[in-house]
């Protein structure tokens, strides 16, 4: 019986639910309500309430969420990438999900993928993304966000080295004057980060490192919105690896956990191999192993397939 | 609607190429022949001619034309032979590096094109100049003009006809407040003008007039020397009715001392296949003389013949 208790408890601990373990126990305990009674008496998921053990509300809530992980990943997997991105952005703007999702989408998609998301947003919500961002975001990073979601960057490799160098200096100035003007409101910072090509920005960040001895990701790390922006534009694989790892931590909240699904589904066809390599480097563990350890059931198997084992 | 006159049965692109090649042969150029071919072929056919010419004669037609033609006539023909997207990209690039507030090309391209046409122009710009239009506009403008123009050329407005009437009311009120307070470059003004759909903006402008008595552009005329205001008014006029806006551009180009050939060529080559018919009608209503007659009076030689062939004689 201890075995089955362990199996049941284990089935519900982690992201997703271990459906097949649950099924075995259900089968084994057929016509034995006293076994279920034994489980309820000893499990933290149930609390004595007078003459019976009632189900804890938190447990019920978390079951709903955990059972839905496999459903969510499947639906997202089936959806057109443009619709996925449009819906995620809409959630941020209308349900107050964290704005870094908007930065993530705007900065890690190709120019045509972002344009596609904008088209899908028109069709689904009858507004443009930039219109909704401009109207609903009241924080001081509004202008940066509008610029990021409106970008249609040149995607070639041609870079003007002198310009990259001078723009690295401009970014450095903005960080140095952070006392007088918040860098996220600085028009030069916004211009550079929202209009230059990714190749140009990588060169610019390289010059920044050379000029100031630190990476721009380090210097902008404390800046809200800007931190994510330069990470996504500078090295998206590194950014995604960090986001994934946050989902596995003890203190992970709902958004951090949901991010695991979002990242794996959206990058599975794009650069998941690169992300795996960076993950292993950064966290000294294979992404697949972390997934096996921290997730359960069909959800786990879906993640493993998408990540490629 | 288009004002081109096209022969009932089009010669093959190869035949047209032969005619053009003949026109280039020997001393001098047979401009009349060039006009009789190019000015009477639709865009898709012109594209085929350009492709066939490169195949048969091993040179880009644009290059041959550049060698043979000169001045205003050459510029008009080169712009005409280009694809619409390429044309817009070239026009934008010419002005972006030496942009001044009086220049309206970027506004025309950002506002008087459909979203798909604007993005096609942006792609053509990237292919040709290895940078994006947005980055060049951002890098070569500053202050309030940059705050306005970059979102303007980056916008991808919703194209549906839904209107939120209470939003139109509140945004009309917001615009009025800012205009009264002389906060012309306020973020809210820029947000509304550069992100709202055209249908929503038309409702907002209507509401403005109903609530406050004056059309918004009248209130924006308060300081005639303020160039930012004149840019705002141009954007609003172009959003409200592109044909009327372009009629004014043509009218000013013709009325100007010595004629603004740049503007005249630009509007005619970019609209001949789009809405030149409506522009002509508006021109006649406004000036009591046909555009045909005005252009004939104001221009000369092959340049005149070419423009007249594009805008067509009137009934």
TrEMBL record, chain A:
Keywords: Annexin, Calcium, Calcium/phospholipid-binding, Metal-binding, Repeat. One of its GO terms (biological process) is response to cold. It comes from Ensete ventricosum. Pfam families: Annexin. Gene3D superfamilies: Annexin. PROSITE patterns: ANNEXIN_2. One of its GO terms (molecular function) is phosphatidylserine binding. The keyword Nucleus does not apply. One of its GO terms (cellular component) is cytoplasm. SUPFAM superfamilies: Annexin. This is Annexin.
From TrEMBL, chain B:
GO terms for cellular component: cytoplasm; plasma membrane. InterPro entries: Annexin (IPR001464), Annexin_repeat (IPR018502), Annexin_repeat_CS (IPR018252), Annexin_sf (IPR037104), AnnexinD_plant (IPR009118). Ca(2+) 3 binds at residue 298. It comes from the Eukaryota. GO terms for biological process: response to cold; response to heat; response to salt stress; response to water deprivation. One of its GO terms (molecular function) is phosphatidylserine binding. Keywords: Annexin, Calcium, Calcium/phospholipid-binding, Metal-binding, Repeat. Belongs to the annexin family. A pair of annexin repeats may form one binding site for calcium and phospholipid. This is Annexin.
């Amino acid at each position: 019986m201890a075995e089955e208790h362990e199996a049941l408890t284990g089935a519900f601990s982690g992201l997703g639910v271990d459906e097949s373990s649950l099924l075995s126990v259900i089968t084994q305990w057929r016509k034995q309500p006293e076994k279920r009674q034994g489980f309820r008496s000893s499990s933290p998921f149930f609390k004595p309430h007078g003459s019976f053990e009632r189900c804890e509300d938190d447990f019920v809530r978390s079951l709903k969420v955990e059972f839905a992980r496999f459903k969510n990943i499947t639906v997202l997997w089936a959806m057109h990438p443009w619709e996925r991105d449009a819906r995620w952005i809409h959630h941020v703007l209308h349900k107050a999900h964290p704005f870094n999702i908007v930065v993530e989408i705007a900065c890690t998609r190709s120019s045509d993928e972002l344009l596609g998301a904008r088209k899908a947003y028109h069709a689904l919500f009858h507004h443009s993304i930039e219109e909704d961002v401009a109207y609903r975001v009241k924080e001081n990073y509004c202008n940066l966000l509008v610029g990021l979601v409106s970008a249609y960057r040149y995607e070639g490799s041609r870079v003007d080295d002198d310009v990259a160098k001078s723009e690295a200096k401009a970014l450095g100035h903005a960080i140095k004057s952070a006392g007088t003007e918040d860098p996220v409101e600085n028009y030069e910072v916004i211009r550079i980060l929202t209009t230059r090509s990714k190749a140009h920005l990588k060169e610019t960040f390289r010059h920044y490192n050379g000029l100031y001895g630190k990476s721009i990701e380090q210097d902008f790390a404390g800046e809200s919105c800007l931190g994510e922006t330069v990470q996504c534009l500078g090295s998206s694989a590194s950014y995604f690896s960090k986001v994934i790892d946050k989902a596995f931590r003890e203190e992970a909240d709902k958004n951090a956990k949901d991010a695991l699904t979002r990242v794996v589904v959206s990058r599975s066809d794009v650069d998941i191999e690169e992300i795996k390599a960076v993950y292993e480097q950064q966290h000294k563990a294979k992404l697949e192993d972390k997934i096996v350890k921290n997730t359960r059931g069909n959800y786990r198997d879906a993640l493993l397939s998408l990540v490629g084992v | 609607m288009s004002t081109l006159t096209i022969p009932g049965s089009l010669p093959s692109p190869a035949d047209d190429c032969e005619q053009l090649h003949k026109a280039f042969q020997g001393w001098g150029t047979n401009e009349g022949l060039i006009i009789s071919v190019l000015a009477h072929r639709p865009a898709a056919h012109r594209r085929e001619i350009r492709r066939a010419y490169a195949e048969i004669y091993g040179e880009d037609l644009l290059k041959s034309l550049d060698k043979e033609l000169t001045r205003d006539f050459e510029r008009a023909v080169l712009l005409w032979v280009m694809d619409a997207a390429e044309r817009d990209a070239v026009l934008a690039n010419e002005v972006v590096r030496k942009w001044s507030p009086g220049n309206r090309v970027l506004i025309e391209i950002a506002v008087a094109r459909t979203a798909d046409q604007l993005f096609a122009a942006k792609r053509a710009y990237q292919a040709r100049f290895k940078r994006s239009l947005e980055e060049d506009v951002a890098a070569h403008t500053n202050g309030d003009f940059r705050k306005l123009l970059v979102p303007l050329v980056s916008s991808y407005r919703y194209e549906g006809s839904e209107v939120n009437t209470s939003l139109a009311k509140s945004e009309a009120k917001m615009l009025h407040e800012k205009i009264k307070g002389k906060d012309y470059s306020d973020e809210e003004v820029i947000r509304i003008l550069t992100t709202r759909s055209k249908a929503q903006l038309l409702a907002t402008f209507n509401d403005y007039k109903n609530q406050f008595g004056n059309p918004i552009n009248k209130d924006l005329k308060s300081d005639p020397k303020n160039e930012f205001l004149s840019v705002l008014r141009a954007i609003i006029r172009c959003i409200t009715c592109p044909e009327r806006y372009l009629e004014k551009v043509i009218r000013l180009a013709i009325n100007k001392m010595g004629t603004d050939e740049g503007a005249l060529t630009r509007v005619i080559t970019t609209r001949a296949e789009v809405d030149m018919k409506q522009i002509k009608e508006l021109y006649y209503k406004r000036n009591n003389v046909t555009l045909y007659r005005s252009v004939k009076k104001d221009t000369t030689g092959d340049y005149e013949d070419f423009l007249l062939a594009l805008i067509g004689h009137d009934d």
